[in-house]
Amino acid sequence: MVKRAMHCKRIVVKIGTSSLIHRNGKVNLQTIDRLAYALTALNNQGYELVLVTSGAIGVGMAKLGVSMRPAAIAHQQALAAIGQSELMTLYTQRFSDYGAKIGQLLLTHDVFDYPQTRQHVLDTIDALLAQQVIPIINENDSVAVDELDHRTTFGDNDQLSALVAKQIDADLLMVLSDIDGLYDQDPNRHPGATLIPEITHLSAKVLAGAGGSSTRFGTGGMVTKLKAAQTMMRAGKQMVLASGRDPRIILRIVAGEPVGTWFGNVLEQVSPDNQASNS
Questions:
Q1: Tens-place pLDDT, residues 164-187
Q2: Annotated binding site for substrate: which residue ranges?
Q3: DSSP string for residues in 199-240
Q4: Annotated binding site
Q5: Which residue ranges are tagged as binding site for ATP?
Q6: In terms of Cα–Cα distance, which of 165, 202, 197 is closest to 267?
Q7: In 3D, which of 242, 11, 228 has the Cα closest to residue 134?
Q8: How far is CA 205 from CA 68, 184, 189, in A?
Q9: CA 54 – CA 32 distance, rounded (Å)
Q10: 268 contacts 5 by C-beta, under 8 angstroms
Q11: Which of 10, 47, 137, 171 sits CB 3.0–4.6 Å from 42 for a disulfide?
Q12: What is the pLDDT of residues 208-236, one digit of tens each?
């Protein structure tokens, strides 16, 4: 098996709501546990990890036993406030089980729009990483709103994770989702769709093919993931899009296993024989 040479030290991992919440609306405790295990394992090896998490509203709905997401923005923000507290409690429990330390940052787009607040956030992240603390970042859904002349919301955490990764000069962004990677067709509609193992150029054709009404491939789905990949590639960095069903896949990605779809400008590959001779 040919492996990828990842060459990464500072890593941002983004996990989506679909990976954290079961289809029945309950919190996926196994996913959170495996995520904590994988990130702690890498942290213990000296990697610098930042987690960008979604799921506040979903966890809030689970906490209150709400099955339908409310239409009113205020009600969604209330659920986010409840869910964010619960989500951090779960993360604290699971990371503590493995002996890791975590810290929370809630951000809005305004933070990155202004140089002073942006630098404060970057300084905080650097200080946490220097102490081997894993920052856990989410959008501040309780205050982020779409209003005229007031741009606060990221719209989705794919964009947030790419922005954070770029700002902190991360070597690698991992986006864990409900899909195994980028396909040549929508696998929900085309059973014969083929996974694309690597992308070194995001053409207009690839971007256009990510559209559609599917929840995985429409706006807020694959489109935002490709935009995140584009952000990383333009910065000379790399991104891997992979399944979040079992977050231990993070360890396989760092080890160079060809899972998911790799996005980058140059793909260096090493065979097991070459890897052995270099070790």
A1: 999 999 999 999 998 899 988 878
A2: 54, 141, 157
A3: ES---HHHHHTT-SSSTTTSTTTHHHHHHHHHHHHHTT-EEE
A4: 14, 54, 141, 157, 177-178, 219-225
A5: 14, 177-178, 219-225
A6: 197
A7: 11
A8: 36, 11, 19
A9: 12
A10: yes
A11: 47
A12: 666 543 433 333 478 889 999 999 999 99
